[in-house]
Amino acid sequence: MAQYHRDLAAARAFVTQLTGYLIQDDELLFAALDTSGNYAAQSNRRLALYGDRILSSVLADAWYLTNQPVGAFARLELSVATNEHHLAFGERVGLGPHINRNNGEQGQPITKNTMAATVEAIIGAVWIDCGKDFDIVRAAIKCMDLDNYPS
């Protein structure tokens, strides 16, 4: 595993508290938090894409059960599954210090895309680590309060 520049145990404790799920795989946890590109050529972007799709699936599942029209799902995604929402979430919970960035980015504000990708990558990491158990990832997303489906 690439040398993580921060305390991986502290990052694991943070992500566990955030999601209610303990990611067992060190490499997967590190990959979710790495935006430096030093660990993998695409940093956490592959996990982020995966996590974004998982979040959308969880939201679609909740929407479908309500029998609301299709437009309600579109509004839900626009209110919950956006980079702006993920940025606000990441800032609110204090995710920034756990993100592994390039040395040149240290001390600079974390961009919206970096924060959003990391939030989504954490969801992707939970999905893979839990053996793709929909109920576990749904519970993690609920714990993160990213399932704000209006009842």
Any overview of this molecule?
Pfam families: Ribonuclease_3. The chain has 151 residues and is mainly alpha-helical. Helices cover 61% and strands 0% of the residues. The longest helix is centred in the middle third of the chain and has 22 residues, at 45-66. It is globular. The protein starts with 7 loop residues before the first helix and ends in an 8-residue tail after the last helix. The model has no long low-confidence stretch (mean pLDDT 88).
Termini, distance in Å?
44 Å
Low-pLDDT parts are none
SSE order: HHHHHHH
Give me the secondary-structure category.
Answer: mainly alpha
Mean pLDDT: 88
Total strand count, please?
0
Please tell me what the overall shape is: globular
In what range is the share of β-strand residues? under 5%
Total helical segments? 7
User: What Rg is obtained from the alpha carbons, in whole angstroms?
Assistant: 15 Å
Jot down its keywords.
151 residues; mainly alpha; 7 helices; RNase_III_dom; RNase_III_sf
